[in-house]
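Structure in, sequence out. Go:
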């Protein structure tokens, strides 16, 4: 049998608007009515957060809420609010998008992390929970991360989380009137067990001191 033959493969289910909870963060379906105010308080006025997004920035809370309503109603993506346990309010959001159930492929994208959420354990655990759902619950074969090729922080984040760089798609998109070359990253189902183990080890409470600072970097738990 050809090594590329898939025995027993069946199309997977589409991700649902689920609620997920970890040690430091909870994730729930994006709800513009509930989440617009805390998200605006956390992200409003920080126009730099929208530099690499396909929408924004927004000049008023009403306009921002309307954008969340469109995201909530989207048929081509599933948007989730990110709520750190300590604050217990939405400080960011992310989505599963470009969902291909026939081939078992989905992308994590449209990630907005307010300054309160950036570079936190909760942000990393949110990405971990979303990956667990895609691989462990739904059985996807491939999980993608894409960003503007000039977005260095996003590229570093993808590598840190265990995604592999696959190349740059030149002139891939036109975003806000500008050309976008897209850096492409992905993680496969056969790679996930090692990536999951590394993330679980890093997220253990024992890996953080009394001030919440990491003791061992995530990269140190990764085996390749």
């Amino acid at each position: 049998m050809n090594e590329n033959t898939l025995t027993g493969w069946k199309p997977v289910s589409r991700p649902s608007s689920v609620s997920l909870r970890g040690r430091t963060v909870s994730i729930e379906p994006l709800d513009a009515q509930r989440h617009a105010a805390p998200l605006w308080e956390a992200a409003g006025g920080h126009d730099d957060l929208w530099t690499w997004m396909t929408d924004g920035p927004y000049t008023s809370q009403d306009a921002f809420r309307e954008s969340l309503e469109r995201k909530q109603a989207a048929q081509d993506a599933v948007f989730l609010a990110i709520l750190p346990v300590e604050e217990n309010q939405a400080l960011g959001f992310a989505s599963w998008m470009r969902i291909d159930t026939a081939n078992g492929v989905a992308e994590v994208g449209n990630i907005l992390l307010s300054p309160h959420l950036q570079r936190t354990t909760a942000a990393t655990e949110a990405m971990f929970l979303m990956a667990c759902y895609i691989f462990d619950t739904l059985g996807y074969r491939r999980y993608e991360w894409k960003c503007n090729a000039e977005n260095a922080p996003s590229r570093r984040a993808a590598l840190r989380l265990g995604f592999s760089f696959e190349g740059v798609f030149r002139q891939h998109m036109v975003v806000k009137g500008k050309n976008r070359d897209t850096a492409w990253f992905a993680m496969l189902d056969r790679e996930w067990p090692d990536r999951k183990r590394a993330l679980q080890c890093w997220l253990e409470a024992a890996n953080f001191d009394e001030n919440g600072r990491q003791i061992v970097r995530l990269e140190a738990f990764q085996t390749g």
